[in-house]
Amino acid sequence: MAREQFQTLTEPMFYILLALREECCGVDIMEKVSLLSHGRVRIGPGTLYTMLQKFETNKVISQTRFAGRQKWYIVTDTGRKMLKEEVERLRIMLRDAGEE
């Protein structure tokens, strides 16, 4: 199952899923990740397309359309659940650290 493979999300994985709460193509995802992370996280094409393939294979995202070589994706219910669980995990860690 997808959750077992993605027990915890890396920062790039987390921000890709955040970006895909709205339909995006690869270039838009890279820009959104940079914006959402205030420039702290940047994702190159190799990392992005590897993650998109893994996410799509595990039904974390789905392809919505394509034109030529450009493909658009959006997070699935499975992906939204993973994102929500990761946010909760991070909240617990902050609480445990006395930061929340």
User: Runs with pLDDT <50, length 5+?
Assistant: none
The number of distinct β-strands equals 3
Structural class estimated from helices and strands: alpha+beta
Largest sheet: 3 strands, antiparallel
Overall number of domains: 1
| Top-tier CATH class | Mainly Alpha
Widest sheet: strand ordering: 1-3-2
Q: Which value, in Å, is the CA radius of gyration?
A: 14 Å
Under CATH, the topology can be stated as Arc Repressor Mutant, subunit A
- Name given to the CATH homologous superfamily: Winged helix-like DNA-binding domain superfamily/Winged helix DNA-binding domain
Architecture (CATH level 2) name:
Orthogonal Bundle
Helix and strand run = HHEHHEEH
Percent of residues in β-strands: 15-25%
Helix count equals 5
Give the % helix.
55-70%
User: Overall 3D geometry?
Assistant: globular
- Mean pLDDT level: 92
Distance between the termini: 31 Å
Helices and strands, with pairings:
Blueprint lengths: L1 H4 L5 H9 L4 E2 H11 L8 H13 L3 E7 L2 E6 L1 H20 L4
Antiparallel strand pairs: 1-3, 2-3
Helix pairs in contact: 2-3
